[in-house]
UniProtKB/TrEMBL annotation:
Predominant localisation class: membrane
Record's protein name: G-protein coupled receptors family 3 profile domain-containing protein
Keyword Membrane: yes
UniProt superkingdom: Eukaryota
Signal peptide as annotated in the record: 1-26
Keywords on record: Cell membrane, G-protein coupled receptor, Glycoprotein, Membrane, Receptor, Signal, Transducer, Transmembrane, Transmembrane helix
GO BP: any one term: sensory perception of taste
Family listed: Belongs to the G-protein coupled receptor 3 family. TAS1R subfamily.
GO MF term list: G protein-coupled receptor activity
Entry annotated with the keyword Glycoprotein: yes
Residue intervals passing through the bilayer: 596-618, 630-653, 665-686, 707-726, 753-775, 787-809, 815-837
Organism this protein belongs to: Takifugu bimaculatus
Xref: Pfam families: 7tm_3, ANF_receptor, NCD3G
SUPFAM superfamilies in the cross-refs: Periplasmic binding protein-like I (SSF53822)
Length: 941
């Protein structure tokens, strides 16, 4: 009850205030506050800002009438759009038997003035009775259209909430008005600014602008749009370089201070894109300062001024830079343009606003163009409306032309026209109209109309329109480009933004930007964009960062990514790559230069061995070949050929079979060759080393070349067999490092390398033994000996493979090539040491000394060197140091190419056992001559 009394008291106060305001000057309220009206069965209240300034509002101390100035052509034109559609609906008979009327009052873009107008229209004919409820409240005005500014819409909606009278706006876009708890009576034929700000943020993201400034006005519209933009900017990766608020003050000097401060912020900032959420008059003031300071930027307009003729026609507008923005979806109507060209008041009504426009356009006022115009003259910007033929016309009120159509974008009146049709379709449902009549009650309470408005859905000019749950139209925006048109700007639609799919779609791609002079869009970024292959390292602000390349194995395939992506399985990327790809396989390809060289060298080696074999067979009876042991040499040639063939298995893409084949072939072939060399070294060792007679006989029993070669090779077979069973080679594909795209395919000699190590170690041991045996026999006369060649070839082998091990371990990538090269070098070393000298001797038929000559020279040297033949100690010493002591006749003769029998006969030498103190000592005897004394130094043959 107490709440009811408070409400009643408040309402009575409002009614008394309205009555005083209405009748204080003794004139009719409608005449005092409303400038246009047309009678009808159902009246609509228009609250439209025909002027955009209330005079001396700061000096107001009495509740007197508001006086306004600065005629707003665009608002006037949009109000005519609503009037035009009312007349069209009445003429079309959409509501049979029912005529729509209207009452239009000027809000002057001021909330207090709008409240006064609403009160006047609600109190026409009778004042509302103050009660606790208004379910049956039936005013003459059933609905209000207009309230183009959000601040006015918010204020008026709070008053109309009491009576539940609908308020429909065609321009108020503040997100705050979507709150149906606080503004249940508010509807609008445009989307909420939350969609507009989302569209602007996406537009900035589309052009890559992430460092922008924003200037908004201090009001419901500016603050609401700014807060909405903050959320959308974060989602679109747009950062604010600065944010400035401009108050809408009536004090020019106060406003100028703010304008200059904001201008200085714009000039000092590095942001090249500025979003302006302002009314046209504030934009005009700001642009004047920009022109004065020669400041150029890219300006993003909100819908409040995106098609403002006040701004587009101002002097020097081309100096401020590029301008683009969003406006509500609109399109021209030829019928409406014709209506504006032949402008008259509604029949039966009046419109003082049309009269005021015609006075501005056609009234002859030459004194207003003087240096000091009289007070009754309009401001300079409105003088531009004046027709050049104004002073040649008799009655301005009867004149018409196409100025409004040519000067303004008449498509912007679409939203106000749609609002009237939404009302008409709601009334059609409410009044139960058919094709011939409307049977519903005309004097209905306004809240019933509100119910029908929320449910209305209709088609207007090929567009299906309806209100969502928040009372907002679900439509979209046009993207407007301000094109240079002489000294002014014209508007070009270059794209759209649909609220439902939330995507910016450009229909015109290549516009010429003033900032760049071509079709390349200007840039406005805190940091340069990070190209694919790098990511952003955020500094203090998300849009300010450094670009770091992605690490190996990761990639960034888009611009300005925050995190690198991992390469999928089987692919890889290097540092700074923008994609991943499979590693390319690296192995000894047949077509590469180095493998061609290795293959050629191996093939040449095999060919060389074939030639050597032929030479050995052809000259097998020559002394050099006999000394070289043709049978052992043929076995060596076979082993070397297998070793050369193993090199060819190193070429091409490796497989498990090739891996096993290359190692087995080398192991068997080279072991066979080294075992033959070992046999030769052992033979020289036995022939030319002094041993006791018993030891000499035992060692000679061990000298069996076929058995030695077979046993040595069989041991290698066993080693390789165990290796293949327990730790066999396999193919491994691995990168040499994370910084490489190569995938090295090569044979691994087993998981532990034990088998491979034992195999190489075994060959190395044989080579070392052969080297030691040859080294011990190095004093053998070179006529019989190959010890020098054996020493050199085994040293070369050991040197090559000792060097191979560290290179193979440290340079894993080149391990295959190094291993093949080592095989070639060691194999060629044996050819050059063991075969080529013999081939040279055989082919050149070099004269070889006979055994008689060698033995006689040896005996002569021995006799000359004997100092005391009869000294037993000297005899013993000579026996131990002479190279020919205990010499095997068979061995020497075999080495020299003669048989024992032939040599004995030729030389006349025979073996005669001569007993001696302390042991058995052989000596030479001559059947034909006298017997040599036993004290002479002896040589065993």
């Amino acid at each position: 009850m107490q709440a009811c009394l408070v409400s009643r008291s408040l309402l009575l106060s409002l009614i008394v205030l309205s009555s005083i305001t209405a009748h204080g000057d003794g004139v009719n309220s409608a005449h005092c506050n409303c400038g246009a009206q047309a009678p009808g069965d159902i009246e609509i209240g228009f609250i439209w800002p025909i002027h955009y300034k209330v005079n001396n509002i700061q000096d107001r101390i009495r509740p007197e009438l508001f006086t306004c100035s600065f005629f707003d052509l665009e608002s006037f034109m949009t109000s005519l759009g609503a009037i035009y559609e009312i007349e069209a609906i009445n003429a079309a008979g959409l509501l049979p038997g029912v005529r729509l009327g209207y009452l239009m009052c000027d809000t002057c873009s001021h909330a207090s003035k709008a409240l006064q107008s609403v009160e006047q229209m609600l109190s026409i004919h009778h004042s509302p009775t103050a009660t606790c409820g208004y379910i049956d409240f039936r005013p003459k005005v059933k609905m209000f259209l207009g309230a183009l500014h959000s601040e006015v819409a918010v204020t008026v909606s709070r008053l109309l909430n009491v009576y539940m009278v609908p308020l429909m706006s065609s321009a108020s876009s503040s997100p705050k008005l979507s709150d149906k708890i606080h503004y249940p009576v508010f509807l609008r034929t445009v989307p909420s600014d939350k969609h507009q700000m989302k569209a602007i943020a996406k537009l900035m993201n589309y052009y890559g602008w992430n460092w922008v400034g924003i200037v908004y006005e201090d009001g419901e519209y500016g603050r609401g749009a700014f807060q909405s933009f903050l959320d959308d900017a974060a989602d679109s990766n747009v950062c604010l370089a600065y944010q400035e608020m401009l108050p809408h003050s009536e004090n020019p000097s106060y406003s100028l201070q703010y304008i200059q401060r904001v201008s200085q912020q714009i000039i000092s900032s590095s942001a090249q894109v500025v979003l302006l959420i302002l009314r046209p008059e504030l934009v005009e003031a700001l642009f004047k300062e920009m022109i004065r300071t020669h400041t150029t930027r890219t300006w993003i307009s909100s819908e409040a001024w995106s098609q403002s003729s006040l701004v587009s026609k101002m002097e020097g507008i081309n100096m401020v830079g590029d301008i683009l923005g969003l406006t509500f979806i609109s399109h021209k109507s030829k019928a409406f343009d014709n209506y504006l060209t032949n402008l008259i008041a509604t029949p039966g009504g009046n419109n003082s606003f049309i009269e005021e426009y015609k006075n501005l356009r056609f009234n002859c006022t030459p004194e207003c163009f003087s240096v000091k115009p009289p007070p009754h003259c309009p401001p300079p910007q409105l003088l531009k409306i004046k027709s050049p033929n104004a002073c040649n016309m008799e009655d301005p009120h009867t004149q018409n032309d196409a100025y409004l159509v040519n000067y303004l974008d008449t498509s912007s009146a679409l939203a106000s026209r749609e609002a009237v049709w939404a009302l008409a379709y709601a009334l059609q449902k409410l009044l139960k109209c058919n094709s011939s009549m409307c049977s519903g009650e005309l004097n209905f309470p306004p809240w019933k109309l509100l119910e029908e408005l929320k449910k209305v859905k209709f088609t207007f000019e090929n567009n299906t329109l309806f209100f969502d749950e928040n009372g907002d139209f679900v439509s979209g925006y046009d993207l407007i480009w301000w094109e240079v048109d002489g000294n002014h700007r014209s508007f070009q639609k270059i794209g759209k933004y649909a609220v439902l799919d939330k995507q910016v779609r450009l229909t015109v791609q290549n516009v010429t930007w003033i900032s760049t002079g071509n079709t390349t869009a200007p840039q406005s970024r805190c940091s340069k964009r990070c190209p694919p292959g790098s990511i952003k390292k955020i500094l203090n602000v998300s849009c300010c960062y450094t670009c770091n390349p992605c690490h190996d194995g990761t990639y960034a395939d888009k611009w300005d990514l925050v995190d690198c992506k991992k390469c999928p399985n089987g692919t890889w990327s290097l540092k700074g790559w923008n994609h991943c790809e499979p590693r390319w396989e690296s192995y000894l390809k047949w077509s590469d230069p180095y493998p061609i060289t290795l293959t050629t060298a191996a093939s040449f080696g095999i060919l060389l061995l074939i030639v050597i074999l032929i030479i050995f067979l052809v000259h097998r009876d020559s002394p050099p070949m006999k000394r070289a042991e043709v049978r052992l040499s043929c076995v060596m040639i076979v082993g070397l050929a297998v070793s050369f063939a193993s090199v060819i298995c190193f070429m091409g893409k490796p497989t498990v079979y090739l891996c096993c084949a290359r190692h087995l072939m080398y192991a068997m072939g080279f072991t066979l060759c080294v075992s033959c060399i070992l046999v030769k070294a052992f033979r020289f060792f036995l022939a030319f080393r002094p041993f006791g007679q018993m030891t000499n006989r035992q060692l000679h029993k061990l000298y069996n070349p076929p058995v030695i070669v077979t046993i040595i090779t069989a041991l290698q077979v066993i080693i390789c067999l165990l290796w293949m069973i327990f730790d066999s080679p396999y193919v491994e594909g691995s990168p040499p490092s994370p910084q490489s795209m190569k995938k090295i395919l090569q044979c691994r000699e087993g998981a532990t390398y034990i088998g491979y190590g034992i195999m190489l170690g075994y060959i190395g041991l044989l080579a070392l033994i052969g080297f030691l045996l040859a080294f011990k026999s190095r004093k053998v006369p070179h006529e019989f000996s190959e010890t020098g060649y054996i020493i050199f070839s085994m040293l070369m082998y050991l040197f090559v493979w000792v060097c191979f091990i560290p290179v193979y371990i440290t340079n894993h990538e080149e391990g295959t090539a190094v291993q093949a090269s080592a095989i070639l070098v060691s194999t060629y070393g044996i050819i050059f040491c063991h075969f080529l000298p013999k081939c040279y001797e055989a082919l050149r038929k070099i004269k070889i000394e006979t055994m008689e000559t060698i033995v006689e020279r040896s005996l002569s040297l021995t006799s000359d060197s004997t100092t005391d033949m009869f000294d037993p100690q000297m005899t013993i010493s000579t026996q131990r140091t002479d190279s020919f002591s205990n010499l095997s006749t068979t061995t020497i003769l075999g080495m020299s190419g003669y048989s024992s029998k032939d040599n004995a006969a030729a030389s006349g030498l025979v073996l005669t056992p001569v007993p001696r103190e302390g042991g058995y000592f052989p000596f030479f005897s001559n059947k034909k001559g006298p017997k040599l004394t036993k004290r002479c130094r002896s040589i065993s043959l």
